[in-house]
Amino acid sequence: MSASRKRKGLFHIETFGCQMNVNDSEKVAGLLATAGYERAAEARDADFVFVNTCAVREKSTEKLFSALGRLRRLRATRPSLKIGVGGCVAQLHGAQILERVPDLDVLVGTHNVARVPELLERARNGGETVVDLDRRADSFSIAHASVAHSSPVRAYVTAMEGCNHVCSFCVVPRTRGPEACRDPGAIVAEVEALVARGYPEVMLLGQTVNAYRHGDLDFAGLLERVSAVEGLRRLRFTTSHPSHVTTRLADAMTLPRLCPHLHLPVQSGSDRLLASMRRGYTRDEYMEIVRLLRSRVPSLALSSDVIVGYPGETESDFQATLDLVDAVGFDSLFVFLYSPRPGTGALRLGDDVPEAEKKSRFQVLNQRQQRSQARANAGRIGSRHRVLVDTIGAEGRVSGRTLEFRIMHLEGTAALLGREVDVEVESAGPNALLGRRLSANDSLTEGSLVPIF
């Protein structure tokens, strides 16, 4: 490494939130590496720490200020340390963050991560906080070759940004802006480059990715183009909105490289609450969407999000959610306690469900789902699956994902990273399967050779 790169210093990134936040952090990491910085494993070793935030839940905002308190204490012993904040909390609260943390060095919005190296240089040279929250910036301007993907096996590829829905509980339209769809040629070119580098799996990202439309090309058409990339083994996407599940999308789910897994947030099983949430569908319409999808792919694994304790939620409303969860049979479920978010419609309704009741409903739903998953996974003992190994665990252990995105643990070494292996399930818990490798007749990718910054 050149002396000029060494003089730039070390960076460390802390990420809160969804895959979009992770992908943004991968972009920042790649850009900083290109600018001559090296990654530090720990914040205490870094010259610049960038905190990439999520604003979907109030707890995420609290995590930011907790992290900033810790970093400011670290800076008391290392005055040259620079601290930056980006992501959804930065975009949502903007300069208000500086009222609580006036000595922040860099504050950057969701559309401006491409400028982090430049802003850091200005902060280092000028000694003042540098702010860029302009949502008009082109969030697709970062060259895909600059992205430092955090996994050598599964690569995130941004398909679109923003959301046009007005769900009453959600701040995403304020933090990410309206829908902006990336040129399909650029998406396909990035996937081709990733496959050439040895990536066996790609996941297309968007806040409401199945709303994608570029000219006459809809999301089903985009899936067809990406799945046709020679050498791609697995294709996934997230997150989807039920209102954009069409017959064309259901048909596209049968594409041979598209994995049979779909994350489809329902949020509630109560029609009254769905209307208040402005979700745009009823319970029966959601169930009809599920039937449409499973008519095309009977083995489809569905995961979902549910909010408990939304304003006005009664015991009857909660029971309707329990009934829907039972009826669908989700493969996994992410349960969240409602928290008021600034600028949202639900804020005007008041946070009237007691915290103790929220937590009780959370426990009831979560435990019910865990029992359901345990039963379903127990029924998979003896079944065989194609597993893409993506994680090296303790000595002699590896993990991977089935086509349905279920976690599988098995014996193996680092040499299996990036391979698809045939596995038979020997035992199971509610959240993972334990299997044994059937044979050495497995596919090998060059995934283990992909550099990670």
Detailed description of the structure:
- The chain has 453 residues and is of the alpha/beta class.
- The chain folds into 3 domains: 3-132, Methylthiotransferase, N-terminal domain (Rossmann fold, 3-Layer(aba) Sandwich); 144-378, tm_1862 like domain (pyruvate-formate lyase- activating enzyme), CATH 3.80.30.20; 384-448, Nucleic acid-binding proteins (OB fold (Dihydrolipoamide Acetyltransferase, E2P)).
- Helix content is 34%, strand content 22%.
- The chain is built from 14 helices and 21 strands.
- The protein has helices at 3-8, 19-34, 58-77, 88-93, 96-100, 116-126, 172-176, 184-196, 219-227, 247-252, 271-277, 283-296, 315-328, 355-378, and strands spanning 10-15, 38-39, 48-53, 82-87, 106-108, 130-132, 154-158, 160-161, 180-181, 201-205, 213-214, 217-218, 234-238, 261-263, 301-308, 332-337, 384-392, 397-401, 407-411, 420-428, 433-437.
- The chain has a 6-stranded parallel sheet with strand order 2-1-3-4-5-6, with helices on both faces.
- Helix 13 (315-328) links the parallel strand 15 and strand 16 (332-337).
- The protein starts with a helix and ends in a 16-residue tail after the last strand.
- The model is unreliable at 1-5 and 444-453 (pLDDT under 50).
